[in-house]
Amino acid sequence: MKTITILLALFVTITLFAGNAETEKIRTKVIPTYGMHCSGCEETVTAEVMKLEGIKSVKADHINKTVTVKYDDKKVTLEQVKAAIVNAGYKLTDG
Ligand SMILES: [Cu+2]
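Above are the sequence and the copper (II) ion SMILES. Below is the predicted complex in structure-token form.
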């Protein structure tokens, strides 16, 4: 009986985890970013944003002055991504 209870608890836990994985909400945002001048800058921004949890991909583009980020809305907010860009030494507004 004890074994069955443990197995049942395990089953419920696994089911809940699988459920959580399905409810992740992936968003893609293009964030205007100023101050990047070369591919080195792109790498700096990318590395900083990638440190955050829930980031699926980052594409920094110094020509178009954008950072395109794909992230899980349940784990990280757009504000956190923007803060990471600023933290890396770049700006969100032109000026
Ligand atoms: Cu640079």
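The first strand starts at residue 26 and ends at 32.
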